[in-house]
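User: I'll paste a sequence; please echo it back and then give the predicted structure.

Assistant: Echoing your sequence first, then the prediction.
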Amino acid sequence: MNQRIGKAERRSSETSVKVEINLEGQGLARIDTGIGFFDHMLTILAGHSGFDLLVECRGDLNVDGHHTVEDVGIVLGRAFAQALGDKKGISRYGTSFVPMDESLAMVSLDISGRPYLHYETPQLALMVGSFDTQLAEEFFRAFCNQCGITLHVRILYGSNAHHMLEAAFKAFARALRQAVALEKDVDKIPSTKGIID
């Protein structure tokens, strides 16, 4: 089986981002964004999806974390789309419920070619460490827009923002793993239209 690997870079006056992803990996992660909790979430994404993931970002953290988190989402989405290639043989859909202590999150997604995000959470504490919790939505939206997936993220309940976001990222990872898994007919586009676009 050919390795499904994607690489992307983006440089602006606000950030410099490099991402490499291998969908046939072992869940290995090398993450450095300058935001500790975000690094933790991306490490979880690699570990629970089984993707090998390299993320390096230098951003204007003297302003805040917004550009760093959003731009990592952009570049990761581009690398993921490249790794998927023509999407032949993929399962396409994935859904996962993940509990973490008092919290429960659900993610359901479709590698549809159509970017859409529904993001719904209870009220979260504003910060977890140096991570602005509002930026989780920006990350998911940037990822969706670049790789063309329909993504529903719901944190059903919880009280600890760290637990709630961690459950969401774990559910996202496991849903992605389901969706990119290869079916028996690896030459078939998983759409009655014959294309995913």
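The helical segments are 36-49, 66-84, 135-147, 161-180. Residues 161-180 form the longest helix (20 residues).
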